[in-house]
From TrEMBL:
Function: Component of the Mediator complex, a coactivator involved in the regulated transcription of nearly all RNA polymerase II-dependent genes. Mediator functions as a bridge to convey information from gene-specific regulatory proteins to the basal RNA polymerase II transcription machinery. Mediator is recruited to promoters by direct interactions with regulatory proteins and serves as a scaffold for the assembly of a functional preinitiation complex with RNA polymerase II and the general transcription factors.
Keywords, sorted A to Z: Activator, Coiled coil, Nucleus, Transcription, Transcription regulation
Main location (coarse class): nucleus
A Pfam family assignment: Med4
Protein name stated in the entry: Mediator of RNA polymerase II transcription subunit 4
Intracellular or extracellular location(s): Nucleus
A single MF term (Gene Ontology): transcription coregulator activity
Organism lineage string: Eukaryota, Metazoa, Ecdysozoa, Arthropoda, Chelicerata
GO biological process: regulation of transcription by RNA polymerase II
GO-annotated cellular components: core mediator complex; mediator complex
Quaternary data: Component of the Mediator complex.
Coiled coil: 80-107
Domain of life of the organism encoding this protein: Eukaryota
Length: 153
């Protein structure tokens, strides 16, 4: 009986109660000499109807318990979905952070290479001063005094 779902058991019990009630009414409404099945007693049918009523009440209690369990499951499912959304957002943020950090590490390594190259290939300060003098003598740092827009000098 536990293999059937509660709904099916409730329907079966209701059908049984309907059949028992019909039989009971038939016995009560039909005179004794005209009854087709004199072996069934109205007291037995009433007892059977009461037993089915108790069975129905037990199944209804089980249905209420299952309803509570189902409600709890739905609430937990909603909570899991909410946490899944938060986890996905956190995962997205971590991916962005990973990308930013990997870019920063790449740039830092590149700068460290440049720094190490600069320290190994040191240029004397006198040579830098001569180069700066050469640039300033050619007016490459600033425009000549009478320069205007479009002047190709």
């Amino acid at each position: 009986m536990s293999e059937k779902c509660v709904r099916d058991r409730l329907i079966a019990i209701a059908d049984d109660m309907e059949m028992i009630a019909k039989e009971l009414l038939e016995i009560v409404l039909t005179p004794k000499p005209l009854r087709a099945n004199p072996t069934l007693d109205s007291n037995q049918l009433a007892d059977l109807l009461v037993a089915k009523d108790k069975e129905l009440k037990a199944e209804l209690l089980m249905a209420k318990e299952q309803e509570v369990v189902h409600k709890n499951m739905c609430e937990l499912r909603d909570e899991v979905d909410k946490h899944d959304t938060q986890i996905r957002q956190l995962q997205k943020n971590l991916k962005e952070a990973e990308h930013i950090l990997s870019t920063a590490i790449y740039q830092a390594k590149h700068k460290l290479q440049i720094i190490s190259k600069a320290t190994t290939h040191a240029i004397p300060s006198e040579e830098l001063i001569r180069y700066a003098h050469k640039i300033s003598a050619a007016h490459s740092v600033s425009a000549p005094y009478n320069w205007e827009i479009g002047d190709q000098r």
